[in-house]
Amino acid sequence: MAVDVGGTETKAALVAGTPERVVAVEQRRRGTPRGVDGPSTAEAVVDLVVDVVDALRPTAEHGIDAVGVVVPGVVDEREGIGVYSTNLGWNDFPFRDLIAERTGLTVAFGHDVRAGGLAECRMGAARGLRNAVIMPIGTGIAGALVLDGRIYGGGGYAGEVGHVDVGHGDPCGCGQTGCVEVRASSGGIARRFTERTGVRVGGAAEVAAMVRAGDDDAAVVWDEAIDALARGIVVLAGVLGPEAVVLGGGLALSGDLLVAPLGKKLDGLITFQRRPELRLAALGDEAGCLGAALLAIDELEGS
Amino acid sequence: MAVDVGGTETKAALVAGTPERVVAVEQRRRGTPRGVDGPSTAEAVVDLVVDVVDALRPTAEHGIDAVGVVVPGVVDEREGIGVYSTNLGWNDFPFRDLIAERTGLTVAFGHDVRAGGLAECRMGAARGLRNAVIMPIGTGIAGALVLDGRIYGGGGYAGEVGHVDVGHGDPCGCGQTGCVEVRASSGGIARRFTERTGVRVGGAAEVAAMVRAGDDDAAVVWDEAIDALARGIVVLAGVLGPEAVVLGGGLALSGDLLVAPLGKKLDGLITFQRRPELRLAALGDEAGCLGAALLAIDELEGS
User: ipTM strictly over 0.90?
Assistant: First the structure.
């Protein structure tokens, strides 16, 4: 089984497969519960996991071998601990051991974005690559680093590619300035368009539609997003030398409107670094759940 | 045996030890030969390696089991190829296979900086850490990434931490602007002091001495170096989350004059990232040679 605990929605699935490819046999979606504080939210999340495991157990013809659970925030995969989540409020919560105790199952515990990256690496857009960065671009910009064929977590602190300072000087909620995601996340693009024009938009997809329709303000905001993103990718190219950068999340749905100018910008900025190929994510918002399943299978296989 | 081929000097050593600790039993230093072009330089380097192996063979009481050879530039460790070297001029030269053929020995082939990082990780300043960045600061600034206890090479393209754009805008020889090493390498510090004052200096050590003596120009240049270096380390902290950054090369000899203000600057810049500990390298200019020996031992152990 796989459970992907999101900031607002939790996806659960009964899955079948191998370490190379998993398929969701049966799915459930639930609202992510909120407690009155961080620890009670964490306990409510554990209750939810136990609940969906019980709900899906009868549908599992051959029983459930293990459950993979992924959460956002800072996650220590080795210790099975949710170190910190801004959104959900917990600190150093021992998810893995508690879920194992309550379900009686083998539990793999991981990070939503890194698990999604693992899925893109094993069965999606980064399949066959040894080194890649998978960047889901939504409200913010996260990164899963696939290095020498393995997901690298840095004790839970790696992959904050949205907070690379690319020099534009605008303040970020993280306390720094110039962060990539201030200009290049879906949230940032929508906010900047509104700041510039006074027109409220539902999201970056609307801005993209206006770019296609020839709107000048939308084009300026979009170009600035491309510039920030390209400069962030140049940093990744120099530090990590990935073969590809896989663009995911809501912004990737804009497809060629994103990839074509980004590739051109990269060509202009990169000098001696290896120019990473740009690819679009293949697994959509199922990546985290599929990755959780892969973590569970890996745990069973002892790797 | 271990051979560290430098831009001007090559260090060779007969070594004894384990995968955790090696000791140089007998050493030789030779000038690195130059051919009329890249391929002939590469061939001359192979000749030199064969020559020092022959020279040290009689001193090896129990014979030579393997030789580790490390070179600068872009190196593909997996394929045993020197992909590219600006200084020495070669392209895609199959060092490992040629040296194996000529010496009849098991050969491990690697990158000088990454091998030095491996040595710092196993037996030096980063011992016991799972995640660290080892930064030798000299003419330029390089980086060896220790991730999950292993050296990560990114197909030869990883670790270019000296070319992270930190926004100061000054042009770099690499074709970009704002690179860390333009302001923070020993070479950059000396050059900038001369540009500012018209006074020629032998290197960053002289600038450091003037900072200690209260020279205002030296202090400005030094502060700018600290600032660029700190901003580069913040990027590494967000992308990789290392437990420590190990400062090496000539600039690390300035010790606390480097580490104290750098730590203070980092504290001011870092927000949510894990603040890496700052450490000084422990193995000096022997790191590359000791790392080459470790690569040879690893090759023998089949890891």
Answer: yes
